[in-house]
Amino acid sequence: MKSLVALTCAGWLTVPGADPPSVAPLAFGMTPQDAANALHAPLVYHHGRRGSEVFYAVRPAHIPGFYWVDRHIFLQFRHGCLTGWKNDWLGPPGSLL
Asked: Are 56 and 74 in contact (CB under 8 A)?
C-alpha cells in the first residue's frame, strides 16, 4: 500500500502543469514587490500593524480533474522583509474541501 501511495504522488508531480506543493520562488528577506514578482500574483493586505504585515496571494492550484481549487499563500513581512509563508487551500464556496 505504501508503494502505491508513493507511486501516485510521484506520478502527480510529473503531470504537466501541476505545481508541486512548495513555493520555490520565495526566499527569506524578499521585499513585498519581489515576492509579488516571484509569485506572478499581486499581494493583498490581510492584517497586521505597520512593520509587521501579513499579505496573501491567490494562485490557481492546477489540480487535474474537475475540481475548482485555489491556493492562498500567506506571507509574513517584518520591517519590509519576508520572514515566513504558509500555503492554504480554498475550494468552491460551500464545499467541504
From this structure: yes
Looking at the structure of the chain, the number of domains it has is 1
Strand order in the sheet with 81-90: 44-47, 52-60, 70-78, 81-90
* Residue-wise pLDDT tens digits, 7-43: 455 544 444 444 444 456 889 999 999 999 998 889 9
In a domain, 14, yes or no: no
Neighbours of 69 (CB within 10 A): 15
The answer to whether 46 and 32 have CB atoms below 8 angstroms apart is no
pTM as predicted? 0.60
Structural domain including 28 reads: 19-90
Does the residue 9 lie in any domain? no
Nearest alpha carbon to residue 57 among 46, 69, 42: 42
